[in-house]
Amino acid sequence: MTLLSFHTAGESHGRGLVVIINGVPAGFKIDLDAVNTDMARRQKGYGRGGRMAIESDRALPISGIRDGMTIGSPVSFLIENKDWENWERFMSADPGIEPGKEVTKPRPGHADLVGGMKFGHRDLRNVLERSSARETAARTAAGGVAKELLRPFAVSFISYVSSLGGVDIECNDVPLETRRKNAEASPFSTPVPDRDEELKALVDTAKENGDTLGGIVEVVVEGLPPGLGEGVRWDTRLDGRLAAALMSIPAVKGVEIGDGFSLAGRYGSEVHDEIDRSDERGFYRTTNHMGGMEGGMTNGMPLVVRAAMKPIPTLMKPLWTVDIETKEAVSAAAERSDVCAVPACAVVAEAMTAVVLTDAFLRHFGGASRADIEERYHQYLERVTSF
What's the pTM? Predict the structure, then answer.
């Protein structure tokens, strides 16, 4: 059973999105500016479409926060869709909406067709509105709250793009804080500054061809104590829960922790992180090929997790499909979309990672208030440091 969880509601062109976050303890300061900074980060990036020129997302608090502090009840936010006035006559909950926005030409690579088959919808807009990545704005707000709950314990998050359109951005020799600053300044959220022009040309070519690009994003989390998660049950292993959370992000098709897939082609003597100890740090690893995870638990090293995002399936030069009404071969539907949304995926991956880690943290040190959690945390930290 999770302690921290969230649910979202809302359609891409509906009135707005709602997120309800359950399990938030009392007594934590929530910096709403920090939450909305993440909302803005999700909208940045070279290659974004026209929707980003319309929306200026802000998480408007509805419940669970009073005078800047959590009060122990569910925290909820509303994220308004600024384009609602142009869609209300097509998306209203009231009977008698106007025709003109029906979709019968499913896009290859999207949920359109299989969702229509599952639910029996003859208008595939009923599927694509909810399966749209617009929903990730609500996830970002939930992740922002999760990060605020870990902030008092010196847990910090960094996310960036490590590959785009097949162009890898190597950054192993770049300090983490430098990666953060570079990613914040880069239109592609890359951890090194000298690849942006190359990536711009790549995106421009894809746009001219009516095509899209995917990539790989990386999240690094520092300050996690050893022992979060469990190795005794398959469904409580933290690595498994992280993989599931990241795979739930639209367009993500692969997840790895640490050196991930590359470990499979190397000797064990090359990849397992040797153990050392000092009076100041206690036990630690001299390398971090495992990405901060062993046996389904954090080991005290920085957590490193990556997610591979496929190219967006909405193409301005659409692929062939079959119209579900006429059964004729046609070009697929073309909704307003991005050429490249990999930088946004990095922010969403950071948010989902934060939610899973915060839940694991609360499961380990849980209590109704910050004071309870801090007491248990410091007792545990003293014990494992002197182990």
Answer: 0.96
